[in-house]
Amino acid sequence: MNRNFTTLRAAALLAAFVFCFATSMPAFAQKKQGEKGAGALTGPITNVNKADKTFAIAGRQVGVDATTIITRDGNPINFEDIKNGEQASVSTFTQADKLLAVSVKIGKVAAIVPPPTKKKK
Q1: Cα dist from 1 to 9, 13, 51, 58, 87, whole Å
Q2: Is 51 helix (H, G, I), strand (E, B) or coil?
Q3: Model pTM?
Q4: Which of 113, 105, 121, 119 has its CA nearest to residue 42?
Q5: Domain containing 57 — which CATH number?
Q6: Using CA atoms, how far apart are residues 63 and 55, in angstroms rounded to an integer?
Q7: Is pLDDT of 82 > 90?
Q8: Has residue 1 been placed in a domain?
Q9: Any bridge partners for residue 89, and if so which?
Q10: CA–CA distance, 78 with 70 (Å, rounded to integer)
Q11: Which domain holds residue 83?
């Protein structure tokens, strides 16, 4: 009897956690109506247009807005500081048929660490 109660309580706790996690995503990660995720682009930045706040990367034209997070070597910078030819990783989404940047990471980006491998016995 005690075991069944513990299992039921654990299931309820897990359901509550999943519900809270799903409903409390950060605002920048939540999609507004009419938006859809587009993914990530990497490569050199070209065609920086400071007047339109746009640039090109990987053959795609990308815009930025007030919510875009732009960093160089992990430090925040302004759009006006972006230069043609800089290597970048850009996280994007599509809104009203335009590609917008969620984040622009220029320069040193966190290294991708491969998962540990199992040793053969």
Answers
A1: 12, 19, 69, 61, 61
A2: coil
A3: 0.60
A4: 105
A5: 2.40.50.320
A6: 7
A7: yes
A8: no
A9: 42, 105
A10: 7
A11: 35-106
Note the maximum CA span of the chain.
69
- Would 113 be classed as within a structural domain? no
Spatial separation of the C-alpha atoms in residues 31 and 76, rounded to whole Å: 24
The alpha carbon of residue 11 and the mean position of all alpha carbons in its chain are separated, in whole angstroms, by 31
Q: Which residue do the tokens 């007047």 mark?
A: 51
Q: Tell me if 10 is assigned to some domain.
A: no
In the 8-state DSSP scheme, what is residue 107? S
The count of structural domains within the chain is 1
Structure tokens at 19: 């519900």
Specify whether the CB–CB gap between 61 and 46 falls below 8 A.
no
Rg (CA), the chain: 21
The whole-angstrom separation of Cα 3 and Cα 26 is: 37
Give the pLDDT confidence of 53-70 residue by residue, as tens digits.
999 999 999 999 999 999
Q: What whole-number distance in Å separates Cα of residue 87 and Cα of residue 44?
A: 4
Handedness of CA 42, 51, 67, 110 (dihedral sign): positive
Residue 118 counted as domain residue: no
